[in-house]
Design brief:
By secondary structure, the protein is of the alpha/beta class. The protein contains 5 helices and 7 strands, in the order E-H-E-E-E-H-E-H-E-H-E-H. Helix 1 packs across helix 5.
């Protein structure tokens, strides 16, 4: 089926749309992830890094990065004819965090991208979603030059609850990104069911 049309004899399907946030530190791969999977040309709000921003933009470990997201990235992917995900990549630097509250409004869940070379950079995102009870998973973006660690070590380093999924991913690879998106949808649905029907004693 194509949006606006239906197969002969079948009524059109009105897709369910879900909002997923992609968060994490500066230079972790959020823009790359959205671009890798979006079926439309992603909306990007990137600006060149300048000398004026050098004191506040820590490029250690991502020296080749020359642009930064100043508002958001936006993309869309259809998982099934009746299920469409809207992806919103959040800005990574602290001076743009005021936008997070607006972007997170109505979100089903979130992906926190992590870089093992700069793991501390995703602490703020983890804390943000925990405080607001927004279900999330941690996607460890496997950069070519970064050390690989078992998922339980990453979990301990980030002090995550045992129910928060930690998965390895490649933000450049469409198949890898689709798997992590399916994972966050499944986790969010499980989270919602658990909190809607709490166990009583």
């Amino acid at each position: 089926m194509i949006f606006g049309r239906s197969e002969r004899g079948k009524p059109p399907v009105e897709p369910v749309t879900l909002k997923i946030l992609v968060a994490g530190g500066f230079g972790v791969g959020k823009t790359t992830l959205v671009g890798a999977v979006s079926e439309i040309r992603p909306l990007r709000t990137e600006e060149l890094l300048t000398e004026a921003g050098r004191p506040v933009d820590d490029t250690s470990g991502v020296e080749a990065k020359h642009t930064t997201t100043v508002a958001m990235d936006f993309g869309r992917i259809t998982l099934r004819e009746d299920l469409v995900l809207y992806l919103f990549g959040t800005p990574g630097q602290q001076r743009f965090w005021f936008m997070w509250d607006e972007l997170s409004e109505g979100a089903l869940g979130a992906i926190v991208l992590a870089d093992t070379r700069r793991l501390e950079d995703c602490f703020a995102a983890v804390d943000y979603f925990e405080r607001r009870s927004i279900p999330f998973l941690v996607g460890v973006n496997c950069f070519d030059e970064a050390a690989r660690y078992p998922e339980d070590e990453v979990r301990r380093a980030l002090d995550l609850d045992e129910n928060v999924p930690v998965v390895q991913c490649d933000a450049r690879d469409r198949t890898s990104v689709k798997e992590i998106l399916i994972g966050v949808v499944e986790h969010a649905m499980s989270y919602a069911a658990t909190h809607r029907n709490p166990v009583t004693r």
